[in-house]
Amino acid sequence: MAGLTPQQHKMHPDPFPRKPWHSVLSVLVVVYLVYSINTMGLDWQRFIDGLGHADKLLDRMFPPNFSRWELLLEGLLESLEIAVISSAAGIFLSLFIGLLAARNFMPNWVSVPVRGFIAICRSFHPVIIAILFVKSVGFGALAGILTLIIATIGFIAKLFAEAIEEISFKQVEAIQATGANFISVILFSVMPQVFSRFIGFATYQFDSNLRNSTMVGIVGAGGLGGTLFSAFQRFDYDFVAAILITIIALILFWEFLSTLVRRIFQCRS
Asked: What pTM value is reported for the model?
């Protein structure tokens, strides 16, 4: 660093050391960024024109129309049911799948295939999975539930497995020294170390499932998304605004509840 003697430089090394390949990589990133912008035809004129169209759209969306509140409530309740069922099933399955994927507890012939399955669950966007399930089981909430179960496993099982791999083995060895079986080791030495993190993973995933349950309905997988898509097709933009406001209110309400739940568990711990 400039202004420091060699001795001071040893005591206070540069926190961001630069190497030649850093500059080369930076140049390559900038070149590719410019190339991508030119290839996709992005320009300020399109952005400015889009703002004008957005202004017209917002004029048609406000004030929101809540006159069809029964239809809105029906779709909202279905989305909530999809989120609750899929989260409960997905989180329960992730407990076992995440344990099987932990490399410090399972042999490679078990953990590697399970990690491959988790990677497959995370490979596709929920909308793509929803399309596949709609084609398989038909339109409705079942397709949405199966979709979000897969999404939940892809997220929770991966993080749960990584949390197990980071635990201290001192507690595990202490429990094993008492002659406890494998299930007791998991319950009394592993779960206490990862339970608070697991609760955090679960609350975040339920929040994600709430949002996704309103989205998968666009492709026919039940929930409020179907109502939203129909309103867009009818150019019923004031009703669209009412649906969007309802979704925002639902997410904010859950954010309040999840914060409360985390505080309760933190106080108990």
From this structure: 0.78
